[in-house]
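Data availability (excerpt). The following record was deposited with the supplementary files.
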Amino acid sequence: SRGLGDVYKRQVYKTSDNLNVRSEPSTSGSKLGLLPAGTIVDYVEDYDSEWAVINYDGTQAYVSKQFLVHD
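Predicted structure:
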């Protein structure tokens, strides 16, 4: 059985490669920045099977999930 701590634990992800941060969940979305490999991201939620929502510079932005790994 899972303890209550597991339920509330935030998921921690870091980048496995240099990762573009985008304004939209699309490679055509404008680039807001670049996260170097090994950066821990402020993960919010999955957007869909390909994109995740993160907090970036105080705003919500999108990154490709294929370059995120569990820390």
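Summary of structural features: Residues 4-8 form the longest helix (5 residues).
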